[in-house]
Structure formats: structure tokens, C-alpha cells
TrEMBL record:
Natural source organism: Hemiprocne comata
Pfam families, sorted: START
Key words of the record: Lipid transport, Lipid-binding, Transport
Annotated Gene3D superfamilies: 3.30.530.20
Function description: May be involved in the intracellular transport of sterols or other lipids. May bind cholesterol or other sterols.
Higher taxonomy: Eukaryota, Metazoa, Chordata, Craniata, Vertebrata
A molecular function (GO) term: cholesterol binding
Name of the protein in its database record: STAR5 protein
The organism's place on the tree of life at top rank: Eukaryota
Amino acid sequence: SEVSVSWRPSTEFAGNVYRGEGIVPASPQDVWECIKPVAGGRRTKWDQNVKDFEVIETVSDAVSVCRTTTPSAFMRIISPREFVDVVLVKQYEDGTMLSAATNVEHPLCPPQPNFVRGFNYPCGCFCIPLPGEPDRTQLLSFFQTDLGGYLPQTVVDSFFPASIAGFYSNLTKAVKELRA
């Protein structure tokens, strides 16, 4: 798929901030339906990096505290992870939809056994309508994740770009299935 992945050193932690940008051949509403951060949502079905997603606390219509778990990766070299984030969902007047998140500690979600606690620094996805192209969406994503544990930074650096490209490819397949 046509996705651009770039990165630079993060100002938040000792890793990188990754930027993915691509055009998804679907309406912004269909793209949003596949990526929106809701319990029981579609993302656990198509995103190979999301095993489970649960809402720990609903703060408002737009803000919630969520726990995301990931499966092991890289032939089990990377153990399953869990992330606890405060998540903001917003829709702008131009139709752009945003999901933004950052790590948070929450008393109802202490670290769980069999998971390494990872930390998402400010990150998010923007579903941006393309004027005059109702069946195409610009998806801009930022990932700034400390996977935690004792992974060498070289392993993390080799994992993220391919993972982001896979995210866009799998999302494109998911929106096609949604419309079928």
C-alpha cells in the first residue's frame, strides 16, 4: 500500500516518534468505524498489534481511560504488552476525526501478570476527509511508544516501521470487508 513512514528522536522519552501517512480507499466514516477506540470495536479483529481493548473508566463523551493489550511479536521475542491510556476522541467541523492518547496510571488497572507494561507518549490518528473524494481518506498517525521491558532499541527500531506499514495494509483490507 502507499504509506509513508518517518521518524525522529522523541522529546518525550529515549525512543522515536513515528509518523505514518497514507490514503485509505474508503470514506472517513468507514475508516473511523475500523479504528475508533471502543470496547468491542473492529480494531481487535484486524489490527495484528491489538489483542484486546477495554474501557476502564468513561470520563466524558469524549474522554476515557482504556487498557490495550498486544500479542507477543517477532516470533515471541517481544512479550505481550499492556498499555493504559487516557484517550480523547474528537470530530472537527471539516469532518476530520481524531483519536489521541497518552499513558496514565489508574487505580482500577494495576500492572497485570504475564504482560509487560508499556507506555504510549502523546500519540494519535487523524482521519481526514479529502475534498471531492468521498471514498478516500487521508490517515495521519503518530506513534510514540515505549514498549517497556528490556528490549534493545535496535529491536524496537526495526519493529515499528514494518508494524506501521502493516497497520495501513490491514486497515485497507478491513474497510474493504466492512463495505462488502
